[in-house]
Amino acid sequence: MQTDNKLFDDFVKFVNGAAGTMAGMAREGGEQAKERAKEWIGGLDFVSRDEFEVTRALALAAREEADALKLRVAALEAQLGGAPAKAPKKPPAKA
Q: Do 31 and 25 meet the contact criterion of CB atoms below 8 Å apart?
């Protein structure tokens, strides 16, 4: 809508310019906040996703191996025909 009122046209231009400036400031502020957060988090000692996945895979493999070894020990004990040996009792701690 075009008007012949110069004052109104100048006001609309001013408001549009101010809105653009505010949007730019908000965008820049958000980018700076992200950058600061990255710097702060980067200084902390976090584990990367790859390192976590490798450690998790190793733990699962170790658990599976331990379960397999338990089964082998149980089978060997059954072959020997005896109950598992009991661990010797520890002497009571002196106070």
A: no
